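One thing: could you explain this record?
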Amino acid sequence: MTSPTATAETQASTFRDGFTHLRDAIGRVFVGQPMLVDQLLLCFFCQGHALIEGAPGLGKTLLVRTLSDALQLRFGRIQCTPDLMPADITGTNVLVESADGLRSFTFQKGPIFANVVLADEINRAAPRTQAAFLEAMQEHHVTVFGTTHPLDEPFCVFATQNPIEMEGTYPLPEAQLDRFFFRLTVQMPGIDDLAEIMARTTGNEQVITQPTFGRDEVRAALQVIKQVKVADPVVRFALRLVRATHPDIDEAPPAVKKYVRYGASPRAAQAMILSAKALALLAGRFHVATDDLRRVALPALGHRIIRNFHAEMEHVTADALVQAVLTSVAEG
């Protein structure tokens, strides 16, 4: 009879193998930025949604598309534009005539009914259209004309955003930003990575990714991640990090009190602890360390911190405020 410890070890090994396979599959197409790829995969295996920011042409869409190509899951892409309507995302009822001449309304599913959804340039969609994502991202179902339609599991939304272009865009509301598990930033590649990109995109060689990872493996990975233990002092360290982002809290650092209007929500702690559990598994541990929490603090906290007018005027970034929190909050 297999012991529970042996079963857990087998499940953890399967998770690590799947993570490595997807990382390698993405690396054959998307060049460089291993930390970005790892954070995207952490978000995916924890079944969270990610907001991916970066200037045009840095491969945001390619990154998500490559991940979907390596999965045996349904992929849906939504190209957000100012004239996009909520029904274009969720679907709507259409009048259908049967073979015997009878007419009835039938729900026609929109592109949100997929396992991996790419919302390209989400900040180009109007606010009422952006709101169509809220219910799906939080509740994993959509409601159309009073009828609730569940979404297939697993379900992840990866939204891209160009942070430097303001004309014709609509800033994401705080309530929607809070639904994103991580905010990831695509950086400008270095010279060596740029040279490799040129070699891959201007030559004859074409890389084809073979999908080998299905929904059962994704569900199993999430279950084994949730089984990782977190000691009470480690949990409290994560909670102190979140509380320290609020300017009205005594233990908040001076930078937060000066530049923050409102801090991160409890969802930030949930994202930090769950992703830290996945990091612990990848390191071969069944317990979370505070260093795991530090590694995921920036993508989990940055987009949930609402800066005030002084921060905007003095160009103080949310990432800098997270670093101030990490420096000020003591462990234990």
